[in-house]
Amino acid sequence: MTRTQVVMLLMSVCQLSIMHGQECPSRQELQNSLRQVHKLLSAHETSYVQSLRTLRKKINLLQTSTARQPAKPTNVTCPKLEAPANGKKMGKVLLPGHEVHFLCDPGYELVGSETRQCKESLTWTGQQPVCKDINECAPSPCVNGGTCENEVNVFVCICAKGWGGATCQTPVPTFFITITNTSAATAAGVAGSAGSAGSAGASVSPPATSSPLVRPSHCTQTQGTTHCTCEAGYTISGRDTSVCTDIDECELFHMGQSGRLCVHTCVNTPGGYRCTCPAGYNLTRDGRNCKDVDECANRQHNCTKDQLCINTYGGFQCVKVECPRIRNATYVKTSPLRCERNPCPVDNRACSQAPNSMSYHYLSVVSNLSAPRVMFRVSAMRMMGDTLRFSLLGGSRARRHFTVQRSDRQTGQLMLVSSVQGPATLEAEVEMSELEKRVLLGRYITKVTIFVSPYEF
């Protein structure tokens, strides 16, 4: 500080002191005060410089970490899930909180997670399911030396010689007749020009008949005894041993499920039979059972682009999923089989009481399906409240065939309680309500439609 600056500072300080009624400080006192101020400024300057250095380091670290991190995508979704072989995947939305459901084709059972949900971490819950072929030969249904061949949704028994029926349980008779102690005239009448009664090993074949249902027998004569046999599928009728008539296998093995030759219709043919299937089915390799044709997979349907093709036993159904129209609430379709409610205004209580989501599922079953039986499961992947309630909606028709039971804390199941004779279409609505201290947090409705076939296969 220069002399002039010191003088000016002394004058200023002195003027301030006089204004406050004090004496002017001496030169020594002023210098001491200035030294203290200088030290204070130096300390503040050092602290300020150190703060700037620390701030510069933090900024450099932030720049480095930002440069290393990849840019976060704007469209964050879970990885796409594929439908299992011999099964179907329902649900296309891959955003967090959304679910994907899996179903297996008839004749296959699901191994793995039936429902998977996209988590906030962009990973799926559960395990990828597979559809495993149900081994109908596991209980060894074929008897009397029959060999079982497993096919989709059915087993086929290859019977040993002399046995027939669906499980080789019915003996197939061999028809022949033996004539003993015959007179020469009788023998001659039977044998025709075969020679005398004493001829050994003579063979007689009467003239062929005109009807395909009647065939001549084949007779041999040995030491006065005549043996007459027929071709497979024919039998000697009455006392005329020279004529073989066709066996009506369809009538012979018609009574009783265990003795049925065909699962659907049996047509008698000369010396045998053949099985036929209704429209929508193909005959299996064993020639007795019928296998459903999947018109949806084979593109043999006439559903429009805005409809879903649902394969049923013996046919198909074209369905169109439309979101519900509820007063004071609106819905948007988030997948082909799911609608979710749009956000409600804060003061709109009626909207908040409406279902949060509506899911639609379609099942195909055979006629007279045994009951009780689990048809569908509804589960909460994560709970927001402290209580889940499951209930069956709908009228008396739904309650006559269905009930809802809880299988665990977070899962309810739709049960078929009585068998249904097809053709028929059944509908059931399962409601899952979530509560917190008895206050409703949300309602989720699953509508299940079941198409019952007119046939038991």
List keywords for this structure.
35% strand, alpha+beta, six-stranded mixed beta sheet, repeat, secreted, Immunoglobulin-like, Laminin, 18% helix
Largest sheet: 6 strands, mixed
Q: What is the helix content? A: 10-25%
Which structural class matches the secondary elements? alpha+beta
CATH-derived topology of the domain at 309-452: Immunoglobulin-like
Tally the beta strands: 31
The CATH superfamily name of the domain at 309-452 is: Cadherins
Low-confidence stretches: 174-208
Sheet with the most strands: spatial strand order: 23-24-25-31-30-27
> What CATH architecture of the domain at 309-452 would you give?
Sandwich
Arithmetic mean of pLDDT: 79
- The CATH C-level name of the domain at 309-452 is Mainly Beta
Strand content: 35-45%
Count of helical stretches: 6
Inertia-based shape = elongated
| Rg result | 45 Å
Report the end-to-end length measured between terminal Cα atoms: 111 Å
Protein name: Fibulin-7 isoform X1
Main location: secreted
Pfam family, one: Fibulin_C
Keywords: Calcium, Cell adhesion, Disulfide bond, EGF-like domain, Extracellular matrix, Glycoprotein, Repeat, Secreted, Signal, Sushi
